[in-house]
């Protein structure tokens, strides 16, 4: 219960099997980004920052525990290059108009940039990248975000979009205005998508070619 109380009034940005990243607005108007480790609820890192400066955090997920580097987000492009290098700085500069907090997650050849709401803004695989201008591009689990088989994204109240995760080319668009998706899981055994809202659910099956 103590670990749950620590996250009260916080907003989850990213979560996987071992870590959760949350931000919180402090009483003095400052913001705080916290990284917790599941199991014992240990606070691994706490980063305080000013809202007007923003924050960019790079999380290197191949380290245990995660290696975290950070800097203010509102910097000139030249300064971003000095701090982050040309490749990362280019992505950060193009994505930072989306908010005041960005997480750059690096997992092997995969890179993803999330905003303060946990929405996907940039996906990169090796030298290929894709920017998402829609302010509600959602993914539903970390396995799908890092998958080499498919990347399934949800445009709220609009569609499910399936991308090739290596070329980042759009493969399938499935219109989905039926209800607001709250959770989505991939059933490997039956090759089905299980989609849920607060009250409803549906199954999405692949079409067999005749």
Describe this structure in words.
The chain has about 210 residues and is mainly β. It has one domain (about 1-175). About 15% of the residues lie in helices and about 45% in strands. The protein is built from 4 helices and 17 strands. The protein has helices at about 1-5, 75-85, 85-95, 140-145; strands spanning about 10-15, 20-25, 30-35, 40-50, 55-60, 65-70, 100-105, 110-115, 120-125, 130, 135-140, 150-155, 160-165, 170-175, 185, 190-195, 200-205. The termini are far apart.
Structural class: mainly beta
Oligomer: single chain
Q: Please state how the strands of the largest beta sheet are arranged side by side.
A: 6-5-7-8-9-10
Number of E-state strands: 17
- H/E series, N to C? HEEEEEEHHEEEEEHEEEEEE
**Strand count, sense and closure of the main sheet?**
6 strands, mixed
Number of helix segments? 4
Give the terminus-to-terminus CA distance: 54 Å
Q: What Rg is obtained from the alpha carbons, in whole angstroms?
A: 18 Å
Mean pLDDT across residues: 83
Beta content = 35-45%
Tertiary shape: globular
Counted up, domains total 1
Report the uncertain regions: 1-5
- Helix amount, in percent? 10-25%
Write the layout of secondary structure elements.
Elements: H1 2-6, E1 11-15, E2 19-25, E3 31-37, E4 42-49, E5 55-60, E6 67-71, H2 77-84, H3 86-95, E7 101-107, E8 110-114, E9 120-125, E10 128-131, E11 137-138, H4 142-145, E12 151-155, E13 159-163, E14 170-175, E15 183-187, E16 192-196, E17 201-204
Parallel strand pairs: 5-7
Antiparallel strand pairs: 1-2, 2-3, 3-4, 5-6, 7-8, 8-9, 9-10, 11-12, 12-13, 13-14, 15-16, 16-17
């Amino acid at each position: 219960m103590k670990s749950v109380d620590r996250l009260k009034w916080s907003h989850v940005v990213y979560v996987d099997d071992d870590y959760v990243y949350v931000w919180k607005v402090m009483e003095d108007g400052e913001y705080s980004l916290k990284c917790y480790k599941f199991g014992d609820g240990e606070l691994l890192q706490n980063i305080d920052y000013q809202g007007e400066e923003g924050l960019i955090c790079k999380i290197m997920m191949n380290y245990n525990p995660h290696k975290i580097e950070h800097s203010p987000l509102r910097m000139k492009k030249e300064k971003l290059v000095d701090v982050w290098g040309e490749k990362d700085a280019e992505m950060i500069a193009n994505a930072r108009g989306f908010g005041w907090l960005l997480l750059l997650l690096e997992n092997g050849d995969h890179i993803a940039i999330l905003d303060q709401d946990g929405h996907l803004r940039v996906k990169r695989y090796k030298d290929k990248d894709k920017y998402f201008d829609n302010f509600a591009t959602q993914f539903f689990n970390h396995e799908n975000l890092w998958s080499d088989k498919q990347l399934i994204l949800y445009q709220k109240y609009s569609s499910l979009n399936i991308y090739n995760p290596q070329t980042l080319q759009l493969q399938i668009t499935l219109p989905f205005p039926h209800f607001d998706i709250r959770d989505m899981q991939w059933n490997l055994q039956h090759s089905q998508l299980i989609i849920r809202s607060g009250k409803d659910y549906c199954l999405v099956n692949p079409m067999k070619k005749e």
